[in-house]
Amino acid sequence: MTLEPASRRQLADTALAIVVGALVMTAAAFDEGTAPVDYALTAVASLALAGYRHAPRGVLVVSTVATTAYVVHAHPGPLAALPVLCAVHTAARVGHRGAGALASAVFLAGYVATGPARQEIVERAGLLAGWFLCALVTGLADRNWQAYLRQTEQRALEAERTREEAALRRAGEERLRIARELHDSLTHSISIVKLQAGVAVHLARKRGEEVPPALLAIQEAGGEAMRELRSTLEVLRSDEPTGTPAQLVERARAAGLAVELAVGGDARPLPETVDRAAYRIVQEALTNAARHAGPAEVTVRLDYSAAGLAISVDDDGGADPSRPPTPGIGLTGMRERVTALGGTLRAAPRAGGGFSVHARLPLGTPEDGS
């Protein structure tokens, strides 16, 4: 069974917390006077590291308080600082530099205040201060490296999208060229044949002669050919998308975006205008998630009902509710499509972090001819 990326990350975080706890407890076992409460404090400080991705500041507080209490009570060696070092590194990695520095100062103050051998304590505190400084610096370096990788991925996705758009544009231009050629050549020729056949039939009937069956067949075939040609030209001139939201989800996965699709209600064919709008909404929402959400997980949900179709595209990226984005061309076009169908659209950061697009498209609108 293959684990999801989120499950793999959580398993790795838990393994890290267990390894850190094992190291600190092993060192504590060789220290004289280690009490059961010290093992409990060490376990709490270490196992808290398993949740650093979800609550880095909370983990920093728990690890610092528990480890400082352990140091004040048991006076252990420098290895006891390992949970706080990891918490400081992970806090700096997500941008909480000030909190990491404050936690380092609190722990070092508690450590210095523990031992009677001042010279040895000062030397160890200096060594630990260097460790904490390294933890902050490496956390910042890792943060900058991850930001660089995300920008590189976004540029690659944007380049791929640009290539696809250019290919689609060239294909559309070629379709229009073929449509013009067909219109200018075949349409004119078929019209002449149909007109000549019609004139011959009219003259024959006017003179009271029997109309040859071949002439009638030519006239009928000419009319049928004109109808078929018009239908073909309409298809060639159409620049509307072809595909489904499920295909968009598959393309996004292939491009490296962690996206899941959920369908509620009874899925059924939709009116053409609603189908096109749903495709464009999902396409634009996934494009925005790939460009702005970073390494986020995205959920696309389609809910069918008798009243219409509800579309939700949610990600757990870094969008902040206090800083709503300025609507660009994509969001504006999305809102215009929904409004034209008499629906509603909400596109804004979520209260818990990330971005949400929610659209309701009613069925039976005047535009779809129902």
What labels describe this entry?
single chain; 370 residues; alpha+beta; five-stranded mixed sheet; 10 helices; 5 strands; 65% helix; 10% strand; rod-shaped
Account of the protein in words:
With 370 residues, the chain is α+β, with helices and mostly antiparallel strands. 65% of the residues lie in helices and 10% in strands. The protein contains ten helices and five strands, in the order ααααααααβαββαββ. Strands 1-2-3-5-4 form a five-stranded mixed β-sheet, with helices on one face. β1, α9 (272-292) and β2 form a beta-alpha-beta unit. α9 (272-292) runs antiparallel to α10. The relative contact order is 0.06.
**Separation of the first and last Cα atoms:** 47 Å
Order of strands across the widest beta sheet? 1-2-3-5-4
Derived from helix and strand composition plus strand pairing, the structural class reads alpha+beta
Helix and strand run: HHHHHHHHEHEEHEE
Low-pLDDT sequence parts: 365-370
Strand segment tally: 5
Which strand-content bin applies to the residues?
5-15%
Number of helices: 10
Average pLDDT, all residues: 78
Overall shape: it is: rod-shaped
Radius of gyration: 34 Å
Describe the sheet with the most strands: 5 strands, mixed
Helix content: 55-70%
